[in-house]
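A favour between colleagues. Tell me how you read the following sequence-structure pair.

===
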Amino acid sequence: MNLINKFLKENPEVKKYFNEDQLEYLEKTFNIWMNQRMKTFSFCAEFMIEYLAKNHHPHTKCIIDSTSSELLEGQESYHTHKFLVN
């Protein structure tokens, strides 16, 4: 289920403002937009993944935001799901 359908399911009162053709167009346009975003993200991410693979060991990570990037090296790690709340 895409985000448009999820939103409409959780907010059924919104549907009354759109006819079926408009809802179909909105869903189609949204899906195209999301697919383009995912392809762009994947395309960009692969450059960094390749760089890390060729230049650093497998425990190296990179965090990138809109103003900086940080290269991290894990020394010790422990993972648990014991305290996750559903």
In short: The beta strands are 60-64, 69-73. The chain has a mean pLDDT of 88. DSSP finds two helices and two strands in the chain.
